UniProtKB/TrEMBL annotation:
One protein family per Pfam: Aminotran_1_2
Protein name: 5-aminolevulinate synthase
Keywords: Acyltransferase, Heme biosynthesis, Pyridoxal phosphate, Transferase
Aminotransferase class I/classII large domain boundaries: 119-463
EC category name: transferase
Catalytic reaction(s) noted: succinyl-CoA + glycine + H(+) = 5-aminolevulinate + CO2 + CoA
Provenance organism: Iphiclides podalirius
Gene3D superfamilies xref list: Aspartate Aminotransferase, domain 1, Type I PLP-dependent aspartate aminotransferase-like (Major domain)
Length: 507
């Protein structure tokens, strides 16, 4: 006869917590409490069982049998299989122990490994060294002293600090938009904005560039809106897809200006114009362009004088601005809508005071004359590096920006070359799947204004040795002076004299 009291509880729960249940709930049960009173027996055992000799405890084999049926899923085994698969295809990631140095004269050096060996860093996205600039550091330190290290909660709960509003005002001004909104990162900004917008706009259709960053892909996926993918930076394909779209339906066209892994720059004006021709809103990620292009560092939109064609711009505070966090800027109503409806904005702790103050200082710094001078030094060293690779006969993908990818096919090979470079005092991270497609592995270099020509010479010499050491031939990526993959010619008049031209951009 099942116990009418305990019978209503989940069996596994009763099995696991039986003795404490007896103690805790026994007094409520007429059977058990009477049993306790009359028998005065062990309170952890059911008095019904104690009284009836015909009812004995289940034999051990039966208990084992029962335990067997609820044996938990083998979580650790599953995780082990996942990791083993990553190791087998060489896409398992090992983070290097690298501490970048920020003291005067140290940047872009870092301490590496257990022995704290000094190496030169070539892959940081702190592109202009803003993270170690004294003005940015001082702003962050003084904000900590005045307001502490943490925000104290979500903006709804902890309130909007004056610095938050100042920073959003500065970002809006930078992008010539009425309003801006900051998030904990640009991954979150892209995901939260796209997932919310494409979800709430009725029957929204999203047109997404094939090369889009994971944050945008995630946002679009999360919205569950209908999605069409157009070929990377291909306005013709975008037009072809849009021309089939229904009238009067909301549409979003989503792409990046500077591509994070190839360094390609999109035909921004053309893509925005096509989007608007078909009544779509443009969502443009300027993550690898803000701080680096344009008179005030507002990005490719500013450099090409087409900021007004971007309806929603997203950017990061974590790369050229040397802090952490992300943002969007756009119309006041759009920003208010995302502020009011996006869970990724609402339900998370606000950016802390040192980050707000540091970011504000960095944006102002890079919009100033000093920022322009850093940008021109940046472009000069990138040009010198591209030229040096060309002269050495080393491969490089034809990038028109500050990102210089050196292709080395095979996750194992690219890791070996990165290791050889590290031995020679140069740190660059090997890029493999899922950041790029399999077969498109590369070293991604991002020289900055504090790298000297001597550092570049030393890196190129180390690259030559590392290619030889790992039996990688130099010319496998070039056919008649052009890229094997995309047929673009290798040229180094890639850098810019004002006004900037894009000689490498595919027509
Ligand atoms: N968008 C692009 C194109 C990126 O490359 C990245 C990060 O690398 C992000 C968005 C996300 O930015 P954050 O690092 O601020 O999250």
């Amino acid at each position: 006869m099942p116990c009418p009291f305990l019978g209503s509880l989940n069996q596994a729960f009763v099995r696991n917590y039986g003795s404490s249940l007896m103690k805790q709930y026994g007094n409520y049960c007429p059977m058990i409490s009477r049993g306790f009173r009359t028998l005065g027996q062990d309170e952890t055992k059911c008095p019904f069982i104690q009284q009836n000799s015909i009812i004995s405890e289940a034999p051990k084999e039966m208990t084992e049998d029962i335990v067997e049926t609820v044996r938990p899923y083998k979580y650790e085994k599953f995780f082990n299989e996942q990791i083993s698969a990553k190791k087998r295809d060489y896409s398992y990631r090992i983070f290097r122990k690298v501490s970048r140095l920020a003291a005067e004269g140290m940047y872009p050096k870092a301490l590496e490994g257990q022995e704290n060996r000094r190496v030169t860093v070539w892959c940081a996205n702190d592109y202009l060294g803003a993270s170690r600039h004294p003005v940015v550091q001082d702003a962050a330190i003084s904000a900590i002293k005045s307001y502490g290290t943490g925000a104290g909660g979500t903006r709804n709960i902890a309130g909007n600090s004056q610095m938050t509003e100042k920073l959003e005002g500065e970002i809006a001004k930078l992008h010539n938009k009425p309003a801006a909104l900051i998030f904990s990162s640009c991954f979150v900004a892209n995901d939260a904005t796209l997932s919310t917008l494409a979800r709430i706009l009725p029957d929204c259709i999203v047109y997404s560039d094939a090369g889009n960053h994971a944050s945008m892909i995630q946002g679009i996926r999360n919205s569950r809106a209908t999605k069409h993918i157009f070929k990377h930076n291909d306005p013709n394909h975008l037009r072809e897809l849009l021309s089939k779209s229904p009238d009067g339906v909301p549409k979003l066209v989503v792409f990046e200006t500077v591509h994070s892994m190839s360094g390609a720059i999109c035909p921004l004006e053309e893509m925005c114009n096509i989007a608007h021709e078909y009544g779509a809103l443009t969502f443009v990620d300027e993550v690898h362009a803000v701080g680096l292009y344009g008179k005030r560092g507002a990005g490719i939109g500013e450099e090409r004088g087409v900021q007004h064609l971007i309806d929603i711009v997203s950017g990061t505070l974590g790369k050229a601005y040397g802090n952490v966090g992300g943002y969007i800027a756009g119309s006041s109503l759009l920003i208010d809508t995302i502020r009011s409806l996006a869970p990724g904005f609402i339900f998370t702790t606000a950016l802390p005071p040192p980050v707000l103050a540091g970011s504000l200082a960095a944006i102002r710094l890079l919009a100033s004359e000093e920022g322009r001078s850093l940008r021109s030094k940046h472009q000069a060293i990138v040009r010198y590096f591209k030229l040096s690779l060309l002269v050495a006969g080393l491969p490089q993908l034809p990038s028109v920006s500050h990102i210089v990818p050196v292709p080395i096919e095979g996750a194992d090979k690219v890791a070996l070359v990165a290791e050889s470079l590290m031995k020679r005092g140069h740190y660059v991270q090997a890029i493999n799947y899922p950041t790029v497609a399999r077969g498109e592995e590369r070293l991604r270099f991002a020289p900055g204004p504090y790298h000297t020509p001597e550092m570049v010479d030393s890196l190129v010499a180390a690259l030559i040795e590392s290619f030889h050491e790992n039996n990688i031939s130099f010319d496998q990526f070039m056919i008649n002076g052009a890229c094997r993959e995309c047929s673009l010619e290798y040229k180094v008049d890639m850098m810019r004299d004002e006004p900037f031209k894009f000689p490498m951009q595919a027509a």
